[in-house]
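Chapter review: from sequence to fold.
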Amino acid sequence: MYQGHFGFTRPLFAEGVAQDEHVFRTAAAERTARDLANGLRRRDAVAILAGASGTGKTTLATDALKGVGTRLAFSSITQPPLTAHELLEQLLTDFGFEPYRRSRVERLQIWRQFLSEMTATDSRICLLVENADTIAPEVLLALHGLTAADAALSRGANVILTTTGRPEALLGGPTMLAFNQRVCLRRRIEPLTEAEVRDYLRFKLRLAGGDPDRILGIDVASLIFEYSGGIFRVVDNLLEAALSQAAAALDHALTGTTVREVAEQQFGLERMAPAAVDALLGAGGEAAEEAESGLWADPPGVDPDEIPTLTEVVLPPPAHREPEIMSRM
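The token string follows.
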């Protein structure tokens, strides 16, 4: 309804994850995308993107991957696998294999063959794992084993992990040592500042064919920032709802009154005080200043030989293997 009312010639928002010209990048996002593309040039490198839900971690990651290369096989894991076997099954399915009615050993062999073939054709594999902080440690260990380079001429696969927690806490602990050492980038994605929210609103309206100077009232950007805390997803919801309400009222510009009514009466949001917004934007400052790339020091007292191998993680101990597997071996 609001598209015709405001003279838009294109949809205001892309379906699904924003791509190509729909991607809005702040200066910090530009730097992160560049560093991410550079870091992932090593075939089994790992990156960790942290930040609150809705800050654009997935959008930034998928957009940055376009700078890595065109020969890329990509998989996005949005639901955390509950077991290592479920993880392998999901990966094989995503890349076009039929893992069902196959033993666990056969699934592992299919995956290893896939890695070798991708290496032979100079192609890349990248896995985007969302909300990695909700995945069990044993599944993360399996992910490491499935994607690390090995002596069988496989260069492994890139992994991008997203988390809402501290990036340095995601792969902590002695059992994660080898996985941790593959990390080439740790970066926190911060919410938009007030100036960035204003730029983003103008960007979206221009992209849709609208006139930001005519549509945006004087205090609209500031109010959307204070109600949203600079979270992309909330900004989008507020903007679209405010445009719909303005169109229904036959208003040709957004006003502060419209934004307040939508935010408080429709969404149940409270306007954040400037100090609270500053605290939100600075929540990850200390973590962001810590090592943004490079390897972490080895934890004391850790014997690398004690870290489980891929076979130990993905396959159960011999005493518990299924009869079918035992017969195939």
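Two observations follow directly from the output. Residues 40-190+287-328 form a domain with the Rossmann fold fold (CATH 3.40.50.300). The chain has 16 helices and five strands.
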